[in-house]
Specification:
With 124 residues, the chain is mostly beta strands. The chain has one domain: Jelly Rolls (Sandwich). Strands 2-1-10-5-8 form a five-stranded antiparallel beta sheet, with no helix packed on it. A five-stranded antiparallel beta sheet has the order 3-4-9-6-7, with no helix packed on it. Strand 6 and strand 7 form a beta hairpin.
Amino acid sequence: MSAFSYSGLLIVANTSDVRFYGINYNIGNDYNSLTGIFTCRIPGIYWFSATIYGSGSVYCYIRKNDYTTGMIRAENPSDTGTASEVFSLKQGDRVNVGNCGNPNGLHLYQGANTFSGVLVKPDE
């Protein structure tokens, strides 16, 4: 089994990766809170979800192997945005939240950001 859920925000800067620090659970220890990266150990179909809570127009992306996919956007002050993605992952594939930005500087509130993922179906 592989599943994780983290909340809170450790560090974020324009075009950087987001690192979530508040562990809710990390079954299989596939999410690394030091790097902010989930590394696939069990090949299969995974579901990921991320929520950001921003102060103004803020956006981030769910990324697979450094390729940006689902955009997470918080448009207004004290606004949240959520995106979910389903990926077919091979062993060693990486998924994280990153490429965050804002034309006026990036501002994410610390406590209300989340990143979760779960193995839906392992490869046979």
